[in-house]
């Protein structure tokens, strides 16, 4: 039976229940299953008038997938909290600090991370993100003397870690979404859909992460330097400098996922695969010499399909690692 987006994210967060950033940013959080499940009891997305700002309180562990103003007020000390932000694939997220009442000198923190961190793994990986890792952390207390009150993500996901030691500590964040004309590094909100990754002559890596076991069809693949060749998968595609990878695994860091196949010859026509991993990733590597493009569609595998591929090596890898 297909999981909804909220149910799947609950499953993902439950499986990766120990949230870790760098040790100075976040610690373990003793959250019960019921408390975690309560994250998804309200609609993550809803239609609101353009002139009306949506407002609601934040929980210690929360998911936000809409624009609005969000306030956290501590009733007790909260030492390990995180808010996950998510937008559409063609959007980035800005987080603005509207009002902050925390004790920075007493060890309180509010830190935005450009991406997601789960179980010590980061999305996008350090190999795929344009910024060095230390620049992806923006700490409110470290930047109090600057005029920078708003931080923008590089992709459709971001998160905020926070820790407060005293009851009554609070802060308010305004979250906005902005169109990204050339999206790179995306976590899909849905278990089914279609997408095209385009890298316009830039030396970068882009990945599309689907946090479900899926059937995937690659319908078009153009890397600029090869044309009218039959489709095929080559060992050593990395040597070409321009190629597409299919990856699978249980984490979110693409550098730690199992490489299923590499594609480095252009083609038009369907290539079909079923991947029984919790996370399936289409990753494009570009040298910057060409306009690279890959189009694909995907859908959630049903329970019968998952049983059928249970003896597959990829499935074994995904469930045993």
UniProtKB/TrEMBL annotation:
Main location: secreted
Signal sequence segment: 1-23
Keyword set includes Secreted: yes
UniProt-annotated location(s): Secreted
Pfam families (alphabetical): CRF-BP_C, CRF-BP_N
Keywords: Disulfide bond, Glycoprotein, Secreted, Signal
Corticotropin-releasing factor binding protein C-terminal domain ranges (all copies): 186-307
Residue span(s) of domain Corticotropin-releasing factor binding protein N-terminal: 53-178
Annotated function: Binds CRF and inactivates it. May prevent inappropriate pituitary-adrenal stimulation in pregnancy.
Family membership noted in the UniProt record: Belongs to the CRF-binding protein family.
Name by which UniProt lists this protein: Corticotropin-releasing factor-binding protein
Organism: Ilyodon furcidens
Lineage of the species this protein comes from: Eukaryota, Metazoa, Chordata, Craniata, Vertebrata
């Amino acid at each position: 039976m297909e999981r909804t987006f909220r149910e799947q994210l609950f499953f993902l967060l439950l499986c990766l229940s120990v949230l870790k950033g760098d040790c100075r940013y976040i610690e373990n959080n003793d959250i019960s299953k019921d408390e975690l499940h309560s994250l998804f009891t309200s609609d993550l997305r809803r239609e609101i008038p353009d002139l009306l700002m949506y407002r609601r309180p934040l929980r210690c562990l929360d998911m936000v997938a809409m624009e609005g103003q969000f306030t956290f007020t501590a009733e007790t000390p909260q030492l390990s909290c995180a808010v996950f932000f998510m937008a559409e694939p063609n959007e980035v997220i800005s987080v603005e600090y509207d009002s902050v009442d925390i004790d920075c000198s007493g060890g309180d923190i509010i830190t935005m991370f450009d991406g997601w961190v789960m179980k010590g793994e980061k999305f996008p990986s350090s190999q795929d993100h344009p910024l060095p890792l230390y620049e992806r952390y923006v700490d409110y207390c470290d930047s109090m003397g600057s005029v920078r009150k708003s931080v923008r993500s590089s992709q459709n996901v971001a998160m905020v870690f926070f820790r407060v030691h005293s009851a009554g500590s609070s802060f308010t964040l305004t979250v906005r979404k902005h169109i990204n004309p050339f999206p790179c590094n995306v976590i899909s909100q849905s278990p089914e859909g279609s997408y095209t990754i385009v890298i316009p002559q830039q030396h970068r890596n882009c990945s599309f992460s689907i946090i479900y076991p899926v059937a995937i069809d690659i319908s078009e693949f153009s890397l600029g330097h090869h044309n009218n060749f039959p489709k095929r998968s080559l060992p050593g595609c990395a040597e070409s400098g321009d190629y597409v990878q299919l990856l699978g695994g249980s984490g979110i860091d693409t550098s730690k996922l199992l490489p299923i196949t590499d594609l480095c010859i252009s083609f038009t026509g369907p290539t079909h695969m079923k991947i029984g991993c919790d996370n399936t990733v289409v990753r494009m590597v570009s040298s910057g010499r060409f306009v690279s493009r890959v189009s694909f569609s995907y859908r959630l595998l049903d329970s019968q399909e998952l049983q059928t591929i249970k003896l597959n090596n990829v499935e074994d890898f995904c469930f045993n690692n």
